[in-house]
Design a protein that fits this description.
The protein is an alpha/beta fold. It folds into two domains: about 35-115 and about 220-330, D-Maltodextrin-Binding Protein, domain 2, CATH 3.40.190.10; about 120-220, Periplasmic binding protein-like II (D-Maltodextrin-Binding Protein, domain 2). The chain has helices spanning about 5-10, 15-25, 50-55, 60-65, 75-85, 95-105, 150, 175-180, 195-205, 230-235, 240-255, 260-270, 275-290, 305-320, 325-330; strands at about 35-40, 65-70, 90-95, 110, 120-125, 140-145, 170, 190, 210-215, 225-230. The protein has a five-stranded mixed beta sheet with strand order 2-1-3-10-4, with helices on both faces. A five-stranded mixed beta sheet has the order 7-6-8-5-9. Helix 7 (about 150) links the parallel strand 6 (about 140-145) and strand 7 (about 170). The chain is globular and about 65 Å long. The chain starts with a helix and ends in a 16-residue tail after the last helix. Residues about 1-15 and about 15-25 have low confidence and may be disordered.
Amino acid sequence: MSRPPLLRRLAGRAPLGLLLGLLLAASPLPARAARQATLALNWLPGGAHAPLYYAQGAGIFEKAGLEVRLRAARGSREALLALNQGTAQFALAEAAEVYALRAGGMGLVGIMAYFSRGPSAILALKRPDIQKLGDLAGKAVGAPRASFPRLIFPELGLGPRFDLGKIRWQNLTPDQLLPALLEGKVDAVAGSTLVAHQYREAASRAGKEIAVFPYADAGVNPYGLLLVTTEAQIAQDAGLVKALAGAVAQAAAASLARPADALQAHLKVNPALGPGRTGAEWREAMALIYPPEARRGGLGRFEEARLKELQALMEKIRGLKLDAPLSRAFTNQFLPLPRLRPPAS
């Protein structure tokens, strides 16, 4: 290998140590190995996860020096338990489940509000006598007995004249909700805006229409999905936590700016998913990731007032108290600065 011109001129008179230093400086540095991490999803891959697959496909994780494996789970609890078992370093999970396990002594830390808006909602067939949530008095409403939308329903701001005792709750499994609604066995169901498209499609086939009444519009808006890690992981490698949280936040912002590209990246990795259903889920998720209330503090950031509302809600409906201050259980310290503020859609 020929030596660079500067080295040829100095070779006869420069000390050996200086020559070795110049050689090292002139040589290309080896590429730094990507840091590996596993992120457990809250469920099977769906439209809500489009930003994470976009982070893979568009090189956002790679640019952050990461190689991230996305692992499916059967619910938020399973995803969070993967952190405790050491099979994942990060998880996507419902805020209520994160709070409950943290109150139970598991050292979880929310590092990003992935869904700044909660998805809880009432879904009903469109009809003249159900135009708003207050019209549910005296109606039959289906929901699993201990589901979060059912538990927090009494907290909705429905006015002093609304008699909660007149709600006729029907205990149904998740799989029973849609058939019961279409068959007229219940007047409405307590569920999520993320499944609204499924209800609309099924109702359309039956010649009917669906009305969706989000809880957020009635004054009850706990955070939805959170990006979560553990205190042990932060203590072991805070740099990895910062890199992952920053990359997910950047991916969410980029996905909101280029939603079609994000969807295509998702479908490329998960070709068995139908573009119609996944696209509808992704559109619903976009409204939860960056709603108007998120624009106050920036994408993915927790607000102290809303965390206190979550704390009061969980203490009231489940009697749960945290083992640490809110600022220790939910933090913005790993999110990028300046604050991300994608264009309003």
